[in-house]
Amino acid sequence: MDITALVQAIAGLQTVDRFALSLSADQWHQFAACLKRRELASGELLTRRGDQEAVAYLIEQGELQVFVAGGPPRSHRIAVLRAGALVGEPALFCDSPRMATVEAMTACVVWSLARECLEALAAQSPVLALAVLRAAGAVMALRMRANLERGIPAA
Predict the structure, then answer these.
(1) Distance between CA 147 and CA 16 in Å, rounded?
(2) Which end of the chain is flanked by fewer CB atoms within 10 Å, N or C?
């Protein structure tokens, strides 16, 4: 499976909450085995608030918008995410319902990362799995801080 465009998108994203994962070619190849490609049409939902799934997504192409609770979609947008970003990262760490709804603003290509596959990767390559988890945890912590500073409640 060719994830070259995804790797380039991740490397090219220059945001504070970027998914800062720097791997060797061999490690990217090994990590790719945990990823599944998915295409979204503009307006299609990637996740819904309240859904229960242990999957995060990496954006290869397109833009997604993230909405929090408190009203209909588009009324409480908290983020627009672009190619190279990670979304749904809390699902890699805990069993809890989704906190937000995520919708494609444009046609998108995303790669899903299931917690179950990441756990299997940890058995094969603990150093690689730790690097992925640390990068995802950093994204989650930075976004939580930014949302708290903007007055958006954590729950």
Answers:
(1) 13
(2) C
pTM over 0.70: yes
Please give the pLDDT value at position 76: 80
Q: How far apart are CA 90 and CA 129, in angstroms?
A: 16
What is the pLDDT at residue 74?
A: 52
Question: What HEC string does 79-93 produce?
Answer: EEEECCCEECHHHHC
According to CATH, the topology of domain 4-149 is Jelly Rolls (2.60.120)
Round to the nearest angstrom and report the end-to-end CA distance of the chain.
37
Residue carrying the six token digits 């950093």 = 138
Tokens describing residue 95: 């069993």
Ordered mean pLDDT values, 10 residues apiece, the chain (155 residues):
94 93 95 97 95 96 87 69 96 92 97 97 97 96 84 63
What ranges make up the beta strands (E) of the chain? 35-40, 45-47, 55-61, 63-68, 77-82, 86-87, 100-104, 108-114
| Per-residue pLDDT at 154 | 59
Closest by CA to 79, choosing from 137, 143, 18, is 143
Counting other chains too, the contacts that 129-133 makes at CB distance below 8 Å and 24 or more residues apart are 131/21, 131/23, 131/27, 132/21, 132/31, 133/92, 133/93
Domain boundaries, the chain: 4-149
